[in-house]
Amino acid sequence: MLVLLAGIFVVHIATVIMLFVSTIANVWIVGSSNTGTVSRGLWLLCNNTCSQLSVSSQEEASLKAVQAFMILSIIFSVVALVLFITQLFTLEKGKRFYMTGAVMLVCWMCILIAVSIYTARFTGAIEYSTNPHHGYCFILAWICFCFSFITGILYLVLRKK
């Protein structure tokens, strides 16, 4: 049982770190240009130098929603981690980690909403580039989506023995 708890803890820590990286880094979409690689993230557009991401007024609300839900997912993931550690030392044997699982599933839902909006609205062409494709931040966000769902479900069914 201790090995299972340690494994879940490690996956949870990895999820938090990957959420930070995918939210902060600016490599959600990558393309090629005549001056090099162009990357677009949630915050900046980087060619040789990074500049503020310019979006149309129609896309601005979608981008703000993606930014907000990614930040919320980080917050909920950290809160779930603190809850897990707290419940690990305060719950009696045989009790379940319901609160931790519920908060982690809220994190999962925030990631789902953010990445779905980004997929629907921003996977087109990048300014000044050709051949756009998804970058590692987009892929990390989907991996975090899977990890947060798995850990959320495991927290709900896990008993402390």
UniProtKB/TrEMBL annotation:
Keywords: Glycoprotein, Membrane, Transmembrane, Transmembrane helix. It is a multi-pass membrane protein. Gene3D superfamilies: 1.20.140.150. It is found in: Membrane. One of its GO terms (cellular component) is plasma membrane. InterPro entries: PMP-22/EMP/MP20-like (IPR050579), PMP22/EMP/MP20/Claudin (IPR004031), PMP22_EMP_MP20 (IPR004032). The chain crosses the membrane at residues 7-29, 65-85, 97-118, 138-158. The keyword tRNA processing does not apply. It holds the Pfam family PMP22_Claudin. Coiled coil: none annotated. Belongs to the PMP-22/EMP/MP20 family. This is Epithelial membrane protein 1.
